[in-house]
Amino acid sequence: MASKSLAQDDISFDLCDKPTQQFCNSCQRRYEANCLRCNEPACFECEISGPHKKHEVQKVTQTHENIKQNIKTDTVEIKDKIIPEYQRKNAEIEKSMSKTKTQFDEIKTESEKLRKLWHQEVDNIFNKIDSMSQSNREENLNVLQEYHIKLKKVISEMNETVKQNEKLLKTNKISAVNKYKSKLQVYRDCPENIDSQMPTLCSKTDKGKELRIKIGEFSAILKQSPQTSLQADISRMTKTIGELKDQARVIATISTDDKNVLDVACVGDAEAWICGNNRNITRIDIHGIVKYTVRTKGPPELDELDGIALTREGELIFCNDNSNTVKILRHGRSETLITTTQDGVLCSLYCTISGDILIHMREFIDKVTGYVNKIIRYQGQTLKQEIYKDGEDNLIFMDGFNSLFMSENKNRDICVSDTNAHTVVVMKETGRVKFRYDGRPARRKEAFYPRGIVTDAWSQIIVADYKNKCVHILDQNGQFLRCVDDCEPENPHGLSVDNEGRLWVGCQSGKIKVIQYL
Q1: Residue 61 within any structural domain of the chain
Q2: What's the distance, Cα to Cα, between the start and end of the chain in Å?
Q3: How far apart, in whole angstroms, are the C-alpha atoms of residue 463 and residue 466?
Q4: Which of 219, 269, 463, 483 has the most CB atoms in a 10 Å sphere around its CB?
Q5: Residues whose CB falls within 8 Å of the CB of residue 106, separated by 6 or more in sequence, listed in order
Q6: Residues 220 and 239 placed together within one structural domain of the fold
Q7: 410: domain range?
Q8: Is pLDDT above 90 for 275?
Q9: Residues 406, 360: contact at Cβ < 8 Å?
Q10: Residue 223 pLDDT level (bands cut at 50, 70, 90)
């Protein structure tokens, strides 16, 4: 119902310097109020008897004030609540964008590392093929060359015989003719033909699934895992050390003819080269079956055996301290790979991811320094690096007659078991010491007595503790993670990890324990 007071009030619409005319929507007269039901301007007559009769109306000034109050309320809420909330979310999204960029940059960096690693693996396969092909080429050419020389010699002899026979036919000397002995039968027996044993290079390409290549007895396969298998691998790899802590178990116990297995070098996932006190090198499988033996007496002859390792192509190399040589086993024969120029004794060796050979050498420096233990790096036949002093000119390794055991981590850190100092020393590729580990965090009963050392696919550093009959596991930064002792490794010495991530532990008892520690 219309308010009666509206007709009596003096309502001014001229609020501006140049007021605009306000009109009723129904009769086009000047309006004095707003109809609240119709939400439109209304004049006095329309309120009394027109279309806005009995509707509730409101002064124009009051409507104006109410709208201004709504504007003020809206502005306060936008300014004090909504804008800060949007700003907070905007900051969060900026942070999320930055984090996303960083994470994808890290993925790209890791992808490039893996690209190089995978390319290197492919290069290793074809380097092996090239090496085998070159070796077979030389063997075949040597055999053919010998046959070629033999034939040329016989041809020369036959030509000489023809000349002598022709002279006899022209001579009248009876005695000379009577002394003639026929060589016809000898020449008729022509040397047997030599068949060149050409290896066949076979390949099979199933894009997206499998790449296979084979030459002679060597074969390699690159296989794409199914997604379910890949997810399982990722799940297994992301397990924490805490989850894996109680899962160490012995997969196999292998008996050997050695009294003490000093060194182990895994081949694939079910075999390993080993050496011990009997001075032989033996290739043995996980069932204890001996596949091959390199003996110290007889071909191939080893003067003194001081450590074994595998090249990135999977070939066996070993030290020979008597002649300061590193030898390699190829096609059942040992060949000299490196002859060191330094006046020192070779004690152990290791092959890096890049193919460099690290050698532990005990060398006499001078009368003041005396003997020092050093690590030398060879690239092919060239000496590239010597590591034995830190940045402050202090010796990195303690003097002593025990061998240094070496390994390399995925970040190219050199991990050394300094058996003379009873510590593990980890250095950058440049030789700068990063940290030392003395075994105390493990809280074992006896003092730390490190021997063999190895790293795994998770960049963990694993070192044998001979006297405490256990294996220490550290992360790549030297943080102690745990000890594996529930598998009762019997005075562990040599260590290696196979392609399945299992730890092969050579023990003083002459046994090898294959341990699933992850």
Answers
A1: no
A2: 86
A3: 9
A4: 463
A5: none
A6: no
A7: 232-516
A8: no
A9: yes
A10: low
